[in-house]
Request: fold
Amino acid sequence: MPDSRTNTGHDSGGPVPAAPTATAPAYPLLWRRGGPEETPGLVHGVELVRQMATGDASEGWLCMIANGTAHYLSTFASDELLARVYADGGQVFGVVAQVGTISTAPDGSLRVDGRWRFASGADRATHLAMGCVPAGGRRRTVLLPRTRLRVDEPWTGPGMLATTSHTLRADHVGLAPEDVVDMTDVPSGRPVGIYGDAELFLCNMPAVPLGLAESLLALLGPTATAASPWGAAYSDAHSRCVVARRGVTDLLRDLDGLARAGRLGPFAPALRAEFRALLSGAYHVALDAALDLVAACDTADPALRARLAAARLDGTTMRPHAAMRSYLARRPG
Reply:
């Protein structure tokens, strides 16, 4: 196989998106909105994350977290709270795991305690949206300045170190009532929009391994002989990416249509499980494509070998993510 060349072939007929430029904003907040007209939609979000991940998997991961966080906050949080946390270019990342405990101090003030694992963007965030244990059947998230959370365990995983996915801890951190976001019901007057079900937070996750795999396809390129071992490996990986991306985008395009018509609400439990399984399938199909490309590429080029080693680390780091395990549980063997 060639050491390095660019393949501009793409199943949509266009080129693989270019990596973001140095002057591009790191985390465009697609879902901050004052009304439904400002919501580009789920498919747009997937495409943005995928494009970011073709340049750098860590940046794609952070883009996925930042946009998902902005998405659910813009649905449930007050305009005043949004204006405050996103002021002056604020970067807000979130951890949806319901870990924190909100309590009332003797003086009547609110406090939060908790230990959230893998808080992506910990070194870049101005604020963190941290999930809390439900109380009285109400789902709650707290908005905390990053400076009020301490690193309990620094990120030491094998890859994607630039995400700084540290374990963060809050110890008796004081809260103002307006820092607590009730995420049980969409507030009156807000469009349900594209966040009709909590599982939709996960819809961008497959875009990260897709971006990783597509960046390798563009970097390595096919050989002229598709029947060669490398040509077969390349063709198989390309086909996997097509299946994964079309499966996700076609589903989300239909959900976008339902949302625009005001018909997208919470999923039934069985549908929620199937939705997660579909996302998990696309996620792992794309990861397999990336890792198989790395394994099949035999090159003496030291720069290319380093790039492949980094891709292998990123791919193996992403594989065990708990939110994307349902497909693996169903897969034979």
